[in-house]
Design brief:
230 residues, mainly alpha, Arc Repressor Mutant, subunit A, Four Helix Bundle (Hemerythrin (Met), subunit A), 3-stranded antiparallel sheet, 69% helix, disordered N terminus
């Protein structure tokens, strides 16, 4: 999901370039290790190199581009260490979110989660991966709101963005969406029942779904990963 940046109500060419490249990278149309040129992107958008340079900088901040002086900019490869770090941080935050959500939820919150699940099922039937990904973000944002910890979603979103490309690979290699909806359903049920243990257990199982994909991709597409330092 592109994290668009706005200056007031007016978009800039930097925003457009950033959004375009973010989506290309997240959807794996630009793959880990692919080279991209400031000059080519500037020509494509009909702008000078400066807005392209600014967009590249934003993407580098998200660990999506590797910018090196006097060398071609490339789509950043996955780092196993960063994946482990990201998962560790997200698990710690989500456990607290689920604990508070289970303690504080009410009937209106349950209805909101049920509506979200219905929309996810619609996306599954339509095999709409982009729509499902957006709804997945919304589901976790809603849990943070129920937990009265909106700020936690900022952390979750930042960490989730680091593995979005792996999520895309997971969904594209097989129909994993129904399984993820069932995870969400188990989380929603536990939250509605004020069952903290069941909510956190279901949440941690949900996070672990990516482990198989990470292991498989690291073996079948080793070039997508950065060499680990010994």
């Amino acid at each position: 999901m592109a994290q668009a940046t706005y200056v007031g109500a007016r978009r800039t060419s930097v925003d457009d370039i950033f959004d375009y490249l973010y989506e290309e990278i997240a959807a794996l149309r630009l793959k880990p290790g692919d080279k991209i040129s400031e000059a080519d992107i500037a020509t494509q958008f009909g702008v000078s190199r400066q807005p392209v340079r600014d967009a590249f900088s934003r993407l580098a901040t998200l660990d999506l581009l590797l910018i090196r002086p006097q060398r071609a900019t490339e789509v950043k490869r996955f780092s196993m260490r960063e994946i482990v770090k990201s998962r560790f941080v997200r698990a710690a935050v989500e456990k607290e979110v689920l604990r508070y959500a289970a303690e504080l939820s009410n009937s209106e919150d349950s209805a909101t989660l049920d509506k979200a699940l219905t929309e996810q099922e619609d996306a599954v039937r339509a095999k709409d991966i982009d729509r499902f990904n957006a709804l997945d973000y919304d589901f976790h944002k809603t849990l943070c709101q129920i937990a009265q910890a909106d700020f936690a979603f900022d952390v979750i979103m930042a960490e989730k963005s680091k593995v979005d490309r792996l999520c895309t690979l997971s969904l594209s290699k097989g129909d994993r969406m129904p399984e993820l909806v069932e995870d969400h359903r188990a989380i929603a049920r536990a939250v509605a029942n004020h069952d903290v243990d069941a909510a956190t257990k279901a949440g941690m199982l949900h996070l672990s779904r990516l482990d198989e994909t990470i292991d498989r991709i690291s073996k079948t597409n080793a070039d997508y990963f950065m060499p680990e330092k010994s």
